[in-house]
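Incident log, support desk, overnight shift.

02:14 A customer reports that sequence design results differ from what the structure should imply. Their input is reproduced verbatim below. On-call engineer (initials T.W.) acknowledged and began investigating.
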């Protein structure tokens, strides 16, 4: 019971704290264009889960082009407001923000690519989330799954990866990202 209680007390990174890792130095060690290179095509429909202030969302919007679209899914309304403002300032009209209640994704879309970067450890009901995710993925949808070394041990990362596999996802390739553990998955 203690372990279950600990799981449910997972803390979501608050919107006001994002400036600490979404700052001017981050592109030097985690350039979103280099990380996503070869994974995104113009016209793709992309789901960015836990997008923060748009560190990956805005490059994704550029990469999918005007014919593509990026949905930013978050449980924090304020985070989505900041992201929407940032997208508007950059002239991105292909970014849609969507408030997630932590239970149902509630999108009538099918996605070519899903970005789950540095946030899977914050999801309270991972099994439910993965079932919801499968419902919105196109066949052969690619999922970029990356977790930070600081918050997620190798054992915890492997446990999450196993959960993806048990829910029908397949490993395509390990992904090397500074200060992180990562894997490219496919449905």
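02:41 Re-run completed on a clean worker. Output:
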């Amino acid at each position: 019971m203690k372990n279950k209680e600990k799981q449910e007390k997972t803390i979501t990174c608050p919107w006001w704290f994002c400036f600490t890792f979404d700052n001017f130095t981050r592109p030097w060690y985690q350039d979103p264009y280099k990380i996503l290179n070869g994974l995104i095509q113009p016209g793709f429909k992309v789901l960015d889960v836990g997008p923060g202030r748009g560190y990956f969302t805005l490059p994704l919007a550029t990469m999918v082009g005007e014919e593509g679209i990026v949905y930013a899914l978050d449980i924090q309304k304020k985070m989505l407001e900041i992201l929407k403002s940032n997208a508007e300032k950059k002239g991105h009209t292909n970014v849609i923000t969507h408030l997630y209640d932590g239970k149902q994704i509630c999108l009538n879309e099918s996605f070519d690519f899903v970005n789950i970067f540095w946030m899977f450890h914050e999801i309270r009901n991972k099994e439910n989330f993965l079932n919801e995710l499968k419902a919105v993925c196109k066949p052969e949808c690619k999922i970029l799954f990356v977790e930070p070394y600081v918050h997620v041990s190798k054992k915890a990362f492997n446990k999450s990866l196993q959960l993806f596999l048990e829910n029908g996802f397949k490993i395509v390739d390990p992904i090397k990202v500074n200060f992180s553990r990562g894997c490219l998955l496919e449905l």
